[in-house]
Amino acid sequence: MTDFVERRLSSTLPDSSYIPGLLSRRVDELLPEFITKHLQEGLKIFKKKMPTYYTAEANVVAVESRTSAPVRIPRDKVTYQHVVIKGLYPCAEGAGYAGGIVSAALDGQNVAKRITIKN
Ligand SMILES: Cc1cc2nc3c(=O)[nH]c(=O)nc-3n(C[C@H](O)[C@H](O)[C@H](O)COP(=O)(O)OP(=O)(O)OC[C@H]3O[C@@H](n4cnc5c(N)ncnc54)[C@H](O)[C@@H]3O)c2cc1C
């Protein structure tokens, strides 16, 4: 965090629970300047108000940039099968029927039920 505010590349990183692991990058260069600037200003205010929160032990992790599928694979409302390809069940996020963990799980559950009923 301190390197982010000082616009430096971190030579080492604190441990992280993020399973794929982290690589050191200049996050200030990945973000648009107006976002970097406001985050840095905010963190400097933290430094004054809560000094222990301003620490090299905190990681600044780059933003989550993926968004839900902008397209939807068509499927029949009753059978949940693709409107043309029988046996194909477009489901959850990539198919355009969910936007998060719970909606993807529920859509998967509904499709699985439909397949079970059919067979
Ligand atoms: C960084 C990040 C953070 C997120 N945070 C949140 C959050 O906090 N809250 C929230 O609600 N949602 C969050 N989401 C969104 C959520 O993870 C997804 O909406 C959800 O996991 C979609 O589930 P899914 O089953 O549709 O797809 P996935 O979970 O992507 O499952 C698709 C599966 O298909 C497999 N697969 C792909 N191609 C093939 C193939 N050819 N053959 C066989 N298998 C294949 C993949 O290996 C994968 O297991 C986040 C997403 C990301 C990327």
Tell me what you see in this structure.
This protein is an all-alpha fold and 119 residues long. It folds into two domains: 2-53, no CATH class; 68-119, no CATH class. It has helices at residues 2-5, 27-30, 33-49, 101-118. The longest helix has 18 residues, at 101-118. The protein is elongated. The mean pLDDT is 93.
Question: How does the SSE layout of this entry go?
Answer:
Blueprint: H1 2-5, H2 27-30, H3 33-49, H4 101-118
Bound molecules: flavin-adenine dinucleotide (FAD).
Residues 64, 66, 92-94, 98, 100-102, 104, 108 line the site of flavin-adenine dinucleotide.
Q: Which regions are unreliable across 5 or more consecutive residues at pLDDT < 50?
A: none
How many strand segments?
A: 0
Radius of gyration: 22 Å
Derived from helix and strand composition plus strand pairing, the structural class reads mainly alpha
Helix content: 25-40%
User: What's the end-to-end separation, in Å?
Assistant: 55 Å
Mean pLDDT level: 93
**Number of helix segments?**
4
Shape verdict:
elongated
Order of helices and strands: HHHH
Bound molecules: flavin-adenine dinucleotide
Largest sheet: none
* Multimerization state: single chain
Beta-strand percentage?
Answer: under 5%
Give the number of domains: 2
Keyword list:
119 residues, 4 helices, 2 domains, mainly alpha, binds flavin-adenine dinucleotide, elongated
Quick structural summary:
With 119 residues, the protein is an all-alpha fold. 36% of the residues lie in helices and 0% in strands.
